[in-house]
Amino acid sequence: MSDVCYPDSLIGNIPNVYYYAANNPSEATIAKRRSYANTISYLTPPAENAGLYKGLKQLSELISSYQSLKDTGRGPQIVSSIISTAKQCNLDKDVSLPDEGEEISAKERDLVVGKVYSKIMEIESRLLPCGLHVIGEPPSAMEAVATLDVYRGSDKGILKDVELLRQITDTSRGAVSAFVERTTNKKGQVVDVADKLTSVFGFGLNEPWVQYLSSTKFYQADREKLRTLFAFLGECLKLVVADNELRSLKQALEGKYVEPGPGGDPIRNPKVLPTGKNIHALDPQSIPTAAALQSAMVVVDRLLERQKADNGGKYPETVALVLWGTDNIKTYGESLAQVLWMIGVRPVADTFGRVNRVEPVSLEELGRPRIDVVVNCSGVFRDLFINQMNLLDRAVKMVAELDEPADQNYVRKHALEQAQALGIEVRDAATRVFSNASGSYSSNINLAVENSSWNDEKQLQDMYLSRKSFAFDCDAPGAGMTEKRKVFEMALSTADATFQNLDSSEISLTDVSHYFDSDPTNLVQGLRKDGKKPNAYIADTTTANAQVRTLSETVRLDARTKLLNPKWYEGMMSSGYEGVREIEKRLTNTVGWSATSGQVDNWVYEEANSTFIQDEEMLKRLMNTNPNSFRKLVQTFLEANGRGYWETSEDNIEKLRQLYSEVEDKIEGIDR
């Protein structure tokens, strides 16, 4: 702030003590810059496993039956039930299923069951925040177990491997539960951890995890290694339950020092705990770290393999992707490193660990062509990481000038074509790092969707182009962001794939509107000469086993684990008024994805309607708890239908219209 900025004038010398979510260091940094905030971090909502419900639970039971009876005459019959139930649960969009009644061999039966099992395990074990965090309230035993547990994914779908994974996961949870239960009070809350853990770390059989494991197939697990693991989990548990949030507020109000600490994902970086700290981010010149580059290489390789598999064995020539401020702080620059690895360059740190130059990786070492990129930086990323934007721009332009064949260097190929078409230098044509104009944020598509203030998708795409086409230029230091819409459009028109990252279990695609606000999938289709829709991918690095899924797979997974999941929506309902608003927000964000990508299946809206509108008891709870958000929920269903994103019966639409009229009357206080 300068002394003529309004925030500076308005805050004067008033202390600004600001509770801020521990997982949002980038916006906490902005709060410090704009209003001199003394932030105090609070714990994010407790995470739990999504669990299984309705047809998914029935599927799990059928799979258990199949495993015990598959070698009897009932095996084929049970598999037939599994296939039909999986189709009722719309899993046929995610798993290739044979036709009902089709004769398949015993080996093929195992594979079908294994793949369905793997998919429902993925849904069941996904972490989701339940309810809202209450300042100063210790977590319950169940919440603490979910926070401490460690998960691994399984991709292959081989039945015995998936079953082993389930046994390991269930046993891990059981052992951790036995451990945590020793530290709970009569209300089931975790308290006095330090004193109680001292008595837990005895010797031999009275250790709770040893007692639990003694009745499982893992009774011979190495006790010494288990002690080391549970000693670490004990330290984590102390940090999770440490009650510093209220104490830090009291200290700040007394004008005392509040201890600083990093913000970010507590699972990735336990130093974020205990909460109640004055949040700081990181040295922006320190990213990407070597570890971030290693993780990035895995994700990029999986992304390119997935795109090749979906695109007739051909590499994508261009990937359009997004860089977020918070994500890069949490992961120490993983998504930044992904961009560098796509174009085939390696970041080089100096003796102080500052990354301020890059070097090209040889085509021989890379083993594939250099992939062109179109980088959309969020406004917060632009504010926090201007040095890294400079690094990226220099890297892209360096690659465009390498003397390499066009079929091995797509950056150069496209830059040469665009330079000729626009009559500009190759370096200018190789502009690939874009954001908003200085001082501006977001494409505003999210605001248009939230307020229903848009006419058609073309209007949303024009908003994206007009607000996001400001380029960074390393050759013009200090010039700020310059509008280069033509170069932006030409670069996007070569994109074969769009790509975003999910790096923490706390925030997913439909939790916030930012993700669809930055999604150019439908826009790219309109810009491409062949009119082909690009493949849209989401990398999920929330577990150690990074996954690359299609956007539609991720939207389905999100819907199953959150919006349609009783565990999630009942957790939200327990928070009252605000919980209903959170439910409505998820549906609005789902419509946002329909608008920008067209990747939301009809059944998602149909199931949401069954859950929140067709269920009379749920409908009344929503309407009575928060009539304003319920009105918006009903309006969003009607809008989804009106815009062609949801096909449903006329009866459903008529009921929604009547409900809208009823809730309007309720809000206005009219009693008909």
Q: What does this 3D model show about the protein?
A:
It contains 31 helices and 16 strands. It has 672 residues and is of the alpha/beta class. It folds into five domains: 6-48 and 244-280, no CATH class; 52-125, no CATH class; 139-241, no CATH class; 290-553, no CATH class; 562-668, no CATH class. The strands form five sheets. The protein has an eight-stranded mixed beta sheet with strand order 13-12-11-10-7-14-15-16, with helices on both faces. Strands 1-2 form a two-stranded parallel ribbon. Strand 8 (345-349) and strand 9 (355-360) form a beta hairpin. The longest helix is centred in the N-terminal third of the chain and has 23 residues, at 159-181. The radius of gyration is 26 Å and the shape is globular.
What is the structural class? Answer: alpha/beta
**Major sheet summary line:** 8 strands, mixed
Number of domains: 5
Shape: globular
Return Rg in Å: 26 Å
Family: Belongs to the Mg-chelatase subunit H family.
GO molecular function: magnesium chelatase activity
Domain CobN/magnesium chelatase: 1-652
Organism: Vitis vinifera (Grape)
